[in-house]
Write the structure tokens for this entry.
Amino acid sequence: MTKLRALRIGITIGLRSESESIWVNGIKQNALYLAKLFQHSPLGHSVMLVNTTTVALTDALPWDTKRFPARRFDDVKDALDVLIELGGQISDEQTRYLKARGTKLISYCCGPEYVQMIEAMIFRRVSGPVFINQQYDAIWVIPQVMETSAHFFSTLRRLPVREVPFVWDPMCLQASTRRLPFEGEYRPGGYANPRTGRRPKRLAVMEPNIDVLKFCLYPLLIAEQAFRIEGGDAIVHLHVTNADHLARHSPEFISIVKDLDIVRMGKASFVGRYDTPHFLSEHTDIVISHQWGLALNYFHFEVCWNGFAFIHNAHLCRELGYFYEGNDIETGVRQLLHAIRHHDNDWQGYRAKQRKAILRFLASNLGLISQYDELLADVCNP
């Protein structure tokens, strides 16, 4: 690795309110986890979050601002060696200012922007004019958006992209679950069926349902087929979050789900938005998930870290939970049935296995820290 010194690093965020929840989306969490990783570097980097909006920075921010200080762009623009543009975009004028003083500018791409952009175009979702910044020193792209968006980024920004490791940490999850029963961790619940000896399970589907990448329909079909096999003795209820608008206003969605047995028998509810930790703790035993082109997600780790059975098709973390390939619903059904019948036999061992598998993604992982220092060295000492 090229020799690298301690750096003054800024990571952008784009606050929309003074007390904005970190559960609104994953962007704020991403910035915090990346900041924690750089703070753990043996080189002793100085790291701060840089807000790119006009929202005031107050004590209402939902994280430890002493550990992860947040500053306005204008207050730190002369005090940075590197600015990583992650959760808020800087302007053309701000870019020129940083470049003139020698600050390195890195685009950290953690969203499927190609898909989001074409959906905005096709479905006329208003996002406003797009500023295509072509002055970056590096473009870093996390693995799950490489397939859909890497060439989109590189062509428009006129620079090759670099795939970088995904980073996560349980700190936000643990802060949210501190006062929950068992600190939000899974425990077998309910009374065992005297005929089968098994406890009936509460299923949950928690996809955002805002685009084609993470949608609830395939998980619904998995739950339906399992319900036809096991019935109400094994599946007490299915909650589908972020879906109340579909159940009320989408004729296509309504026409598909109204004839499902699990819906007809009153065993399914289509509800609004909930934060993950509380909903898992209060309403869930098993989570069913499906993604299409976004095969790593914080949600996957939050579910598995706390020991909940997780039925999913995310091939970039296939070692987690109960995996099925692609759109193979039959395998998904078999995995769900296995979890219903056997997950509680070794729920503690399962949780330990999940946490061991997630270690390679943690912000405190020494190998991961070293990889990011090498990435910084390539940018700062080309």
Q: What stands out?
A: The two ends are 11 Å apart (CA to CA). The longest strand covers residues 8-13. Residues 176-360 form a domain with the Rossmann fold fold (CATH 3.40.50.2000). The mean pLDDT is 93.
